[in-house]
Amino acid sequence: MWFQKGITLKPRPRGFHLVTNEILAMLPEIHGMKIGMMNIFIKHTSASLTINANAAPDVRVDFESYFNHAVPEDEPYYLHLDEGSDDMPAHLKASILGCSLNIPIANGYPNLGTWQGIYLCEHRNHGGSREVLVTINGE
Amino acid sequence: MWFQKGITLKPRPRGFHLVTNEILAMLPEIHGMKIGMMNIFIKHTSASLTINANAAPDVRVDFESYFNHAVPEDEPYYLHLDEGSDDMPAHLKASILGCSLNIPIANGYPNLGTWQGIYLCEHRNHGGSREVLVTINGE
Amino acid sequence: MWFQKGITLKPRPRGFHLVTNEILAMLPEIHGMKIGMMNIFIKHTSASLTINANAAPDVRVDFESYFNHAVPEDEPYYLHLDEGSDDMPAHLKASILGCSLNIPIANGYPNLGTWQGIYLCEHRNHGGSREVLVTINGE
Known about the structure:
The structure is a homotrimer. By secondary structure, chain A is α+β, with helices and mostly antiparallel strands. Helices cover 22% and strands 37% of the residues of chain A. Chain A has 3 helices and 8 strands; from the N terminus they run ββαββααββββ. Chain A has a 5-stranded antiparallel sheet with strand order 1-8-3-5-6, with no helix packed on it. Chain A has a 3-stranded antiparallel sheet with strand order 2-7-4. Chains in contact: A-B, A-C, B-C. The interface between A and C is medium-sized, with 31 and 36 residues.
């Protein structure tokens, strides 16, 4: 069985945001699947998706701080400057973290670990709403 | 055809460990598939999976050294400190490398390149055993 | 329906190269699919694949500059030296960016965002031609 649905995530400030429940609430179709895979694909190049700790909120603050240090704005060697200081770092962060999550489905639920949650990683200062496409295949 | 199996990887020291044979030995079901995909998903946020060089062991030592430099412990801006100096870097490394591998299956085998192997990346000092879930789909 | 095809990408200089059209031109089979997933897997450990901005070419130049700063050659702690200064950084970059892309298919086309393109990331000075395996599943 195949299923595909577009989801619009509301605009969020720059940073890392836990969106597990927001996404899964849109996907009641999963509950009928015994085994399968779910792909969540973000259709942008300056925001990304990752899976990480779903409890302590300070982890997500540290993610933002770390990536701002690891991928600085205004590096003297950047050529692509015309969309603002936050743009080129946003592209780089998006590729380091990735745009496509693949999560197994087991007995009607995404089989995440106890401490795993889905992060929307907003790398722009004003990224606006973000489009994700969810594709599910299973039996 | 769908197939899903949980595998417990034994505790390993912090570092990068080649686990290709350990994982594939648990998956004889692959051999009946002509075309398919295998997903290997680690259900943790402080360990990760990647594919890299399967020969020279010093490559794996250099992975550990590099990531310790690139994602340092005890950065002054870290807020999430209560699980030890190795914890926040472990979360960051886990998202940089990823928790979910997708490998094509061809003629009964994972179609890895000659020099490709599967690494378990243990980012904690004492991470304990690690749970992975393998989901296979093919014909 | 399953479909699998090997594609040889011609040798390219070290850097980030837009290969969306080159890959998709080899895959007319996609056009018959209503919903599906496409996996593109590069069978090497010193080159990688990512999805990022498909317009301004200076973004790709900045990718090369950034990753050369973030993953330097000739770090004093590297042990794996016998394949040249560009080799160990190439392995590290390959794992940071990844070897396996998963792209949804909708109504006969890969459902990339407007600004998304597929990059071949060539991390070696003289990497030669690169083998990718495309696996498609859908209905």
